[in-house]
Amino acid sequence: MRAVVAKRYEHEADLSEIVGLAEAAGYEVVATRTQKRTEDAAYHFGEGKVSELAGLCVREDADVLVVDNEVGPYQKFNIGKTVPEGVQVVDRFTLILEIFGQRAQTRKAQLQVELAELRYELPRAEAKTSLAKRDERPGFMGLGEYDESREQDIKSQISRIRDELDQIADTEETRRERRRESGFDLVALAGYTNAGKSTLLRRLADALDVDENADRHPDLDDTAVSENQLFTTLGTTTRRADTGKREVLVTDTVGFISDLPHWLVDSFHSTLSSVYHADLVLLVVDASEPVERMREKLATSHDTLRERNEAPIVTVFNKTDRVDDAALRRKRDALSSLAPNPVTVSGLEGTNVGRLRARIEDELPDWATERLVLPVSDDAMSLVSWVHDNGHVTQETYGGDHVELGFEAPPPVVDQARARAAELGDGGPTGDGDHAGGGNPAGDGNPAGDGDNAGRATTDNTVGQPDTPSRSEQVTESEPDDQGPPSRPRRR
User: Fold this and answer.
1) Is the pLDDT of residue 466 over 60?
2) What is the DSSP code (8-state) at residue 346?
């Protein structure tokens, strides 16, 4: 379909983004126009500019007039009365919703798109009712046919979709907690659309075996989609990434975009919750763009994250293969207030990805250090194996009838290991305070592993150094995961 693109502006008339969005939606952009002026209450543009756009649609045989602004329902009605019959008036947010609708593949993504569409339509349904009462019914010039019950139908559908999304959100929160309890750290990729997040996700999991859990998780895929296209990723995709010692799950989410209204961002809260509740956020920026555009996109991203994000943020300047070192230094200096100490990488070529992995390890919450002395038994060996799978073992010493196990792990894993250790032996302390397999923390003055106190545990909050790399998987987060957390490779 052929499209004419128009934009009203007061400060800057950059059409590159809206043209990219129109092309992403499948339109052929045949002409563009801009107008610098304040917003007109009746037509959005000046009335003369609307007449000019109508003539341009005729000359270019356009099917669609795309307006790079939010156009009110009455403004859309008036523009629709002016342009040729059959030409559809599409504002910026209708266009974005159209792209979302094309890309939504999972149930969660489809529900979020439907919710956004309904929230967009609601004030327009109210406008149709108002216009109908004035007997201006025929055609409604782009607003659609009038249906007196439509407004209430929209509100009912919004309520139903929110209930279903809440259920999905509860399932995903349970999954996140289950993964944390299994020793996984959760890292989210955030940033402006088309910044290269999907490519970076693939690079972080590069050369890792994703077939290991194919039977356990039928939604596994060995690739993350990477295309030079806006909104390639609409839902969330999670893969196990190799950062060194830590077991990390990295999630790629929908990209941010400028000037999104609150209702649209809120409609995708379920997807963005993967960012809001991560242990660490990697804010990815396209370093090949002009510094002012990078500044705007960093500001947009921080605005989106500011209200709900709970995790530390590390800025990643991606696509450095497209910019020389001197220009990159200038950009780092110019953006230091928005992006202090960024990591510069090329997801495409793999440059400095090792440095990014090390930074992830440094920025993640500290692990606790634990030491257990356990009786040699089948149950104890099962616990030793479990600790290997869920933490980083620093010591494993066998002596006579006991094994001394030192390890580092997230606090939930340490707590589980202590609880399981306490169940070994006689199942509890004896009268003199000594018991094999106990999980008492340090601080009682008795060192672990002294023979009379086998099973006692000591704890501190130090963090070890990177060790054996993990293996990889991909999980589509928006689908139910009834199989539990991903299985973990045993590491010695």
Assistant:
1) no
2) B
Q: Is the dihedral of CA 19, 191, 264, 117 positive or negative?
A: positive
Query: Judging by beta carbons within 10 Å of its beta carbon (0-12, 13-18, 19+), is residue 7 exposed, middle or buried?
Result: buried
- Where do we find the tokens 């990591």? 343
**Three-point CA angle 284, 285, 287, nearest 5°:** 135
CB-CB neighbours of 20 under 10 Å:
16
Q: CA gyration radius for the chain?
A: 28
Structure-token pair, residue 422: 């306490």
Give the integer Cα–Cα distance in Å for 214 and 212.
6
Spatial separation of the C-alpha atoms in residues 291 and 297, rounded to whole Å: 10
Whether residue 146 has pLDDT greater than 90: no
Per-residue pLDDT reduced to its tens digit, 87-102: 999 999 889 888 888 8
Q: Are 69 and 139 in contact (CB under 8 A)?
A: no
Query: Which among 170, 123, 178 has a CA at the least distance from the CA of 150?
Result: 123
Tokens of 244: 């060194």
* Tokens matching residue 249: 């799950």
Determine phi and psi for 375, rounding to 5 degrees: -70, 145
117 C-beta neighbours (distance < 10 Å), count: 19
Q: Residue 62 carries which DSSP code? A: -
Q: Which of 160-164, 183-187, 228-232, 298-302 has the highest mean pLDDT?
A: 160-164
Q: Per-residue confidence at 439, pLDDT binned at 50, 70, 90? A: very low
* Mean pLDDT for the chain overall: 77
Residue 4 · residue 56 · CB < 8 Å: yes
Angstrom CA distances, 283 to 187, 191, 259, 301, stand at: 11, 5, 18, 8
CA-CA distance, 476 to 236, in Å (whole number)? Answer: 6
The two most distant CA atoms of the chain are separated, in Å, by 96
More confidently predicted of 360 and 267: 360
Q: Is 11 helix (H, G, I), strand (E, B) or coil?
A: coil
Q: Residue 45 to residues 42, 87, 112, 131: CA-CA distances in angstroms? A: 8, 17, 31, 21
From the list 276, 257, 297, the residue with the least C-alpha distance to 97 is: 257
Q: How many residues does the structure list for the chain?
A: 492
The span from the CA of 458 to the CA of 283, in Å, is: 37
Q: Quote the tokens at residue 182.
A: 């299994």
Which among 392, 457, 369 is positioned nearest to 418, based on CA atoms? 457
3-state secondary structure of 119: helix
Q: Say what the pTM is.
A: 0.66
d(CA 171, CA 24): 32
